[in-house]
Amino acid sequence: MYKKYFSFLHKVDQSTHESALVDKYEDSNHLIELRHVEKTYHTDAGDFTALRGVDLQVNAGEFLAIIGKSGSGKSTILNMITGVDRPTAGEVVINGTAVHKMQENQMAVWRGRNIGIVFQFFQLLPTLSVLENIMLPMDFCNTYRPNERQERAMSLLKMVEMTGQANKLPTELSGGQQQRVAIVRALANDPPIIVADEPTGNLDSKTADAVFSLFDELVGRGKTILMVTHDSDIERRVGRSITVADGEIVNQTGDYKIFNQASTVGGNPS
Ligand SMILES: Nc1ncnc2c1ncn2[C@@H]1O[C@H](COP(=O)(O)OP(=O)(O)OP(=O)(O)O)[C@@H](O)[C@H]1O
Asked: Signal peptide position in this chain (predicted)?
């Protein structure tokens, strides 16, 4: 249902912005690579090892589900990829960039341009309008010209059929609407990678299905999506899933290699 708007968005993207990673994809074997990543939290109660040598490769254009019981380490894996948290040992390489070798301020801009993050509880800024929420990443990372940002935010809202809500506050929207806004906010800078932590966990099944369809459309346009989920329906609908238990990847389904062939990034036509 969102498909008709993507060709329009593609024109906007091509004329105004190139993703920071886009020209490096052709010769990259893996878009995302975790090399023996370990994470130990030091707490008053003692050390707790949340990740025990995680190795993971993700190709451009994959839709990967990360599943596992509560506390198994799923969000910690996402935090390693986004650079929100640092590994105790090991390395995260995203298209040739060693994520954790960047300075904090460098990393914030890199993250803003290359990774869109979607949360279970949406995390829209409550005092900003829907439109302002979507413009925020562009303002922060200085992507697109200032006078183009509003038009781009509106075109993203159009994609999810919500232009009529542009001036509302997040609290005036339903959960499903807030999540659609959060997803297009994650797309604001046209990042090649979207990570989503339980994005349908707070939605009824019909709304969750619509949100999943939106992610599916994005994968069809060449985005790479990593999604933590407890939803077994969604798990069955993605290309590959990994199961995490006690800080380790204990199972994988699907074959990531098949996604290597046709994948493109940055909203290019598929
Ligand atoms: N900052 C922290 N300090 C100490 N322990 C932490 C910290 N963050 C996470 N942990 C612990 O690390 C383990 C893995 O946490 P993580 O959030 O990655 O699990 P999860 O699989 O995403 O769980 P859930 O499905 O409940 O979100 C948990 O036992 C958690 O309590």
From this structure: none
